Amino acid sequence: MFAESLEPLVAREARPVLRWLRATAYEQLGDVEAAEKTYSEAESLDPTWPLTLLSLARYASDRGDADRGLTLLRRAGVPPEDSLVQLLEQFRPVARPDLGRNEPCWCGSGRKYKVCHLHRERAELAERAAWLYQKAGAHLLDSAFGDLLMRAARARAQHWGSPDALVDALDDGLAGDVVLFEAGAFEEFLAVRGWLLPEDEQLLAQQWLLVERSVHEVVSVRPGEGMTLRDVRTGDVNEVRERAGSRQLKPGELFCARVVPAGETMQIFGGLEPVSIGQRDRLIELLDDDPDPLELVEFLSARFAPPTLQNTEGEPTVLCSAALKISNVERLVALLDNNRYDRADDEPDGTLTWFEHVVTGGMSRIRAQLELRADELHIDANSEARFDRVLSTVRTLDPSVMVLRESREPAADLRAVQRLAANGPAPSAPPLDPTNDPALAAALNEMARTYEANWLDESIPALAGHTPLRVRGRPDQAARPDSTARLVSR
Predict the structure, then answer these.
(1) In angstroms, rounded to a whole number, what is the distance separating the alpha carbons of residues 223 and 318?
(2) Which residues of 296-314 are buried (b: 16+ CB within 10 A; e: fewer)?
(3) Could you read off the pLDDT of 287-343 as tens digits, one per residue?
(4) CA-to-CA distance for 278 and 219, rounded, in angstroms?
(5) Strands 214-222 and 226-231, sheet pairing
(6) Rounded CA gap, 265 and 238, in Å?
């Protein structure tokens, strides 16, 4: 209404801008037909204004007219490295080398090639499927799904730790593909702009809406050509054309992907996400339950998270330390000796040390350390639960203690540990070398054997929560080629 009412009142050179503004408003309202007509009117008023030419180039792309799109982009002064220019160059019509201009057209119309299909050749649908996917992606960036796309990209990049992580996540493909199909942006694209597409692309797009994301097992690989995939959920087997990805895959591997028809082929858009054996069943349950887009992206991106560190009681690692001022040293020493703490040998300098122990996995382990130097008690533990428990006990034993300093340094993943190591002091002594210390080597060997024995009876996430002994002892598991029994036998 603003553009329509103002246009008759402004100078002629301003009218193309207002006509473009009207067309943009039509697009926002979802009236793409009126928008295209109004953009064309704006071009007739000023055939050189870049914004009009850029908008019309996108319509030409949606209609499958690469030549017209490139002509409009050149008039707008768009550089060759522009993404839309490069896309349209891929699908520019190429004359058939086996036909002369005056020969009958290959399509059987009876007309000469030069007046029928010359300069109007169209690539096979299997090739144009990638173009169709790019058209939907362009609509996604301009649609109401833009905010969801950014949130999905942030979920994808949350573990990458790079300044360009968000940009890389947008280029990665998964976030956009999930928003297109799990969030419904592709369906909206067809409702709003689908009528612009060539007829065979319209039918192909409708087929894509019927395809669900699933977990696929690689059956065989033809490097540089494609692979055979079996849908773990349905048992369907598909021959997939995938030139680049097929060079990296191996039979038996699991991936999450959408395998869609593309002319005479089956193809994958949006990437192949590796799936571990331990993830497989949980991912299938998630896919069966109409997953939330962000939840799905977070699940498939968890593989980028650094390994988490826990103590033997399953508590997140936090390096905790405190120094307390003691008013009555002798009384506290007696109370600590009579409490649950185990006193170590006294040091020559008078330092007294106590340990709190816990038995896990058949082994006694140190929970916390207390060290008394003169009238200062130092407490160290590797989790907040352990630290708070000891601190509370000491305050109960001696309510007059005063905290001089306290620190809690999260170290629940390897990145946090690396940061602590980089900021901390250099080690004062070289690390112990078991090869030069037979007693240390024997102790480590015994510890490893104990761990191995206990591991057989532990619930392992990679084995879907089963213990190795249980899985190894089940003939039905051992007989299945895709079962976790192979993991145990290795």
Answers:
(1) 46
(2) bbebbbeeeeeeebebeee
(3) 999 899 999 999 999 998 877 788 888 888 899 999 999 999 999 999 999 887 999
(4) 19
(5) antiparallel
(6) 9
Question: What's the Cα-to-Cα distance from 278 to each of 305, 466, 482, 484, rounded to whole Å?
Answer: 16, 10, 12, 9
Residue with tokens 């480590």: 444
Residue 251's nearest CA partner among 234, 227, 269 is: 227
3-class SS of residue 409: strand
Quickly count helices (H) and strands (E) in the chain: 22, 13
Q: Name the pTM for this structure.
A: 0.71
C-beta separation of 478 from 484 below 8 A: no
Phi and psi at residue 59, to the nearest 5°: -65, -40
Contact call for residues 154 and 169 (beta carbons, < 8 A): yes
Cβ contacts of 452 within 8 Å, gap of 6 or more: none
Residues 6+ apart with CB under 8 A from 209: 181, 186, 187, 190
Token reading at 28: 């926002």
Residues of the chain where predicted confidence (pLDDT) is lower than 70:
95-96, 106, 108, 114, 117-120, 412-429, 461-462, 464, 473-490
How far lies 202's CA from each of 14, 151, 206, 373, in Å?
Answer: 37, 29, 6, 79
Nearest CA to 130 out of 98, 165, 88 is that of 88
**Which residues is 259 bridged to in the sheet?**
268
Tokens of 33: 């037909």
379's tokens: 């407490």
Length of the chain: 490
Q: Could you give the angle at the alpha carbon of 57 between the alpha carbons of 52 and 61, nearest 5°?
A: 155
Residue 35 to residue 24: CA distance in whole angstroms: 7
In Å, what is the CA distance from 434 to each residue of 84, 236, 239, 440, 445?
Answer: 61, 54, 53, 6, 10
Q: What are residue 146's phi and psi, to 5 degrees?
A: -60, -40
DSSP annotation of 310: B
Measured from the Cβ of residue 486, the count of other Cβ atoms closer than 10 Å reads 15
